[in-house]
Specification:
Helix content is 75%, strand content 0%. The protein is an all-alpha fold. The relative contact order is 0.21.
């Protein structure tokens, strides 16, 4: 589920700036 992935990215966004690119 992409929604779940976005949720995980939101939590790890502070730790992993790379996820911010994926979230975009």
């Amino acid at each position: 589920s992409r929604q779940r992935l976005i949720g995980l990215a939101g939590q790890k966004k502070a730790t992993n700036p790379f996820l911010k690119i994926i979230e975009s």
